[in-house]
Amino acid sequence: MRTNRFLAVLLAATMVFGSTVTSFAATDPTESATGSGEATGSGAAEGYVNTNVVKVVLPTTTTTTFAFIMDPQKMLETTNGARLGTAWKSPGANDKYVYFKTANGYANESDTVYFVNKSSGTDLDVTVTAKASPAASGTTITLDGATAAAPTVTNDEKLYLGLKVAGETAKIDTTGVSIKVTADAPTTNQYTLVYNKGYKYTDIAGATFAAVPISVEGSVTTKPTEKVAPSLSVKWSWAAHADDFAETSGVNTVKYVTNNAYNISGATLDQRDAAYGSFHGGIGAGYGGKLTITGSSASITFLDDALEIASVQYAANGTTFAEDTTNLVVKNKTVTIKTGAWKDASAGAAVKVIFKDLTDDNTDNAPAPYVFVKP
């Protein structure tokens, strides 16, 4: 009897416990005819880079760029520049006896500096003004434009200073003279978007922009005088192009390369000739330049991904090109020119680097060849 009672109690407890567990069982949503769901994700903006670039490169000057010495008594010439030491270098037979300190010694014209319009799409009107001011003490020599053509006059005391801007020259006086020129934005895009710890819109390898060259020239009559030289100021200003801007007749901007298309080792490169595209003497996208090998060979390494070398050719006469695997070696993006192609060659010998067309549109879009010429 006791056993039956115990079994009855145990069975009842089991039934209660079992029903309790069943009441808390989870429902599988995939086994239901109705339901809903949700997923979330954060939003992020990659960022923004302004591609409308308005930027200029100002002329690089020092306190000596437009400083000058007038020497009507020819003392520097007579003493071979003894006071100036090793920096002196006579301008030669056409000396005009006004000297500016330049990168290559003293000359009758200052170094050229450049105002560069690096804007992506904004034309800029540039005004360059020069003015001579009387010296603080002493009698200032008379300013006269005629002495530029006749610096050897010995019966007068006159100084000429000329402002040279973009191919035009104006006589400098005490009231000030100006030359005006528009530096256009490039007609093709010279910028690209890059990422290096952040996005940046930067100029491409070989980027070329319009620049305004600025320099000052001078001459003085050769009558000895105690009169003193004036001081000189050169200023530049710019603004977005306006239709009523009165550009000086005859001015022309020049090409200025701001980002090297290639590096050169074992040689020097002169691009100052207009034929080579860059007037600031730096390495750029033009047509190469005048190459002087300073070691046993010269290496030219191209930096622009758009420039893939197809072949390299040599012309002893500068015009009839043919491949020369003995003196010209190509490895990846580097061309090595051995002195054999240069040592015994006459001035005008040339190396031409030809590039591949990297587009796939069945048209010839290969970049223009670069030509390096022996001076």
Q: Could you name the key traits of this structure?
A:
25 strands; 2 helices; mainly beta; 375 residues; seven-stranded mixed beta sheet; 2 domains; six-stranded mixed beta sheet
Structure description:
- The protein has about 375 residues and is mainly beta.
- It has helices spanning about 1-25, 75-80; strands at about 55, 70, 100, 105, 115, 125-135, 140-145, 160-165, 170, 175-185, 190-195, 200-205, 210-220, 230-240, 255, 260-265, 265-270, 290-295, 295-300, 310-315, 320-325, 330, 335-340, 350-355, 370-375.
- Mean pLDDT is about 85; it is low at about 275-285.
The residue fraction in helices comes out at: under 10%
Spatial extent as radius of gyration: 37 Å
Low-confidence stretches: 277-286
> What's the overall geometry?
flat
Report the sheet with the most strands, covering strand number, pairing sense and barrel closure: 7 strands, mixed
* Strand residues, percent: 35-45%
Judged by helices, strands and strand pairing, the structural class is mainly beta
Q: What's the number of structural domains?
A: 2
